[in-house]
């Protein structure tokens, strides 16, 4: 029996039940005046309630109302008798889930992801200056530009200066938003210098290593394979209007576009004398990647949106641009273990990092000082994701998943795979998604108690 | 003619203002006194049965909520003004026929509407005074809606009157070919002796669940299952969107199922197997598959 028959038969039951109980209250019926006003809903609330009560118990008045509804010119014969699935908004749940999975696929493996074209994805340096209206809006990216590694940042106002972020081949050196409470500008400078050194090391180690494949610590859980990088802003520029694009004066590093590297990347100017600057070159066209890295600059106020933003591009330094093949997972593990992997948090002051690939450290002062939390792990740690200042997930080889939910104590999380884990994106202490070296993605909704395989749409 | 509530003199200014708002054409011959009487009848109808005398503010608020132009037209037509009647016919004739057909079908719709015309025009007279249906229009709704309401009442009254002459054993509809279960009816020797009891328990549980519903919930279900209205029509009657009607109907059906289930298991203390027997017997004897209709998988 199909659902329609089922519904009809159930209606017969309800009809009998209602009809058998409606004969009691037929003493006085509504007159035409009240009936018409009741139909037009122009009665007072009290009268409407009284009419509802009467009509619900009076078969004759109910039938008269039904006849009146049929005679209504606007709705005569209109509408459906069926319970329409379209009115049941629960159908949006699987639709939304499917859409989210498609976006994830498109970002990681699809045409917008680093593996989409099976071609080395060039990195385009970007420096974002968030606008006041959409502080988290992604930078304008030309169609040919593929975002490889993007890291979201906390919202910030447009009047603040950018501070710096970097995402280089599976490692993120993500600058954080200059929030209130930062100690001083001098300390910020020191912190950024520390960042710069770390980034330089990371860049030199990983140049040509292909795109990162999404290990960006993702605020809001968008770290797998991509997300939005948003430059931090310095306290020094508070209240100042965004400055015009200043090559090498901002510090966000990102990205990649082989085909458009030349036109996107502006020559770096010497805000930081210690950093070389060179225009982006890409002799091999779209098949090659050019990694552009830009060191943080302490007080430069830039309004650039990065190289992809064209006129507003604040361009970083081009480190090197050797042609590379498509990214392989193992390339990430060949990186120098001395290169720290910095994991930003929504709190601009708090950072985690994987130092020496075997030690997790915490900084509460924008990277000025680091406190060892978990030392001498047996396996190599690769990357992490910190959805809050207290919660951080770190993954590594041999299916290693570590997590802290209080910002202090780390625990081992049950892993769905024994293979190396290449990326993690966490939304909170319970919800996270990981990617194994074989490309399989797993998601948990309960802190790793159970993992569910996410199939890649094809 | 309905009794009127005599307005005090301090309402004279308000009545004059409302008369201006009504904007009755001069050739309708509607005077202020006649309009005032119409307002007084309307107020008497509204405040009839209310405790105490309505305040001046309440009366004015009520009068201002009326459809004054329609009330003026009804007054003029009731007074027999030919120009007003022409206006009424030109404005509502087609609408009345259309509504009649919508209510009574193509065959009876025109007859239904024509019967109304006679009473509207006022063929009857009592004590030398012409009686017209327009005297009962008080402006609480649009004149067109009121006319359709009268058509609906006429049709339903006639329908119910003719139905009373039919046998009570006659089926309610084609969809419902068999009469309801009579728990006292004899059962065959081969049947389960508990069969009637189970069916009676199921009926009782369902009736209790329906009675316990909120009036609007019960009304919504009745509009859908008894009156066979569309979701849009139900939404029009209840002041809800079609989507809301659909969701609430679906929820009411699920709630009914749960309550029937809970009543059978809780109050009636039936086991799971006995509950299933209730559904099975109902499916066999009632013209619907109760087991499926109330199944948890629904």
Question: Can you give a write-up of this model?
Answer:
- The complex is a heterodimer of chains A (458) and B (298).
- Chain A is an alpha+beta fold.
- Among the domains of chain A are: 69 residues, no CATH class; 114 residues, TolB, C-terminal domain (Neuraminidase), CATH 2.120.10.30.
- Chain A is built from eight helices and 19 strands.
- In chain A, strands 8-9-10-11 form a four-stranded antiparallel sheet, with no helix packed on it.
- The radius of gyration of chain A is 30 Å and the shape is elongated.
- Chain B is an all-alpha fold and 298 residues long.
- Chain B folds into two domains: 149 residues, no CATH class; 99 residues, Orthogonal Bundle (Arc Repressor Mutant, subunit A).
- A two-stranded antiparallel ribbon of chain B has the order 1-2.
- The longest helix of chain B is centred in the middle third of the chain and has 40 residues.
- Chain B is elongated, with a radius of gyration of 27 Å.
- In chain B, 38% of the residues are buried.
- Chains A and B meet through helix 1, helix 2, helix 3 and helix 4 of A and helix 5, helix 6, helix 7, helix 8 and helix 9 of B.
The counted number of beta strands of chain A is 19
What structural class do helix, strand and pairing data of chain A support?
A: alpha+beta
Rg from Cα of chain B: 27 Å
Write down how many β-strands of chain B occur, each being a DSSP E stretch of 2 or more residues.
2
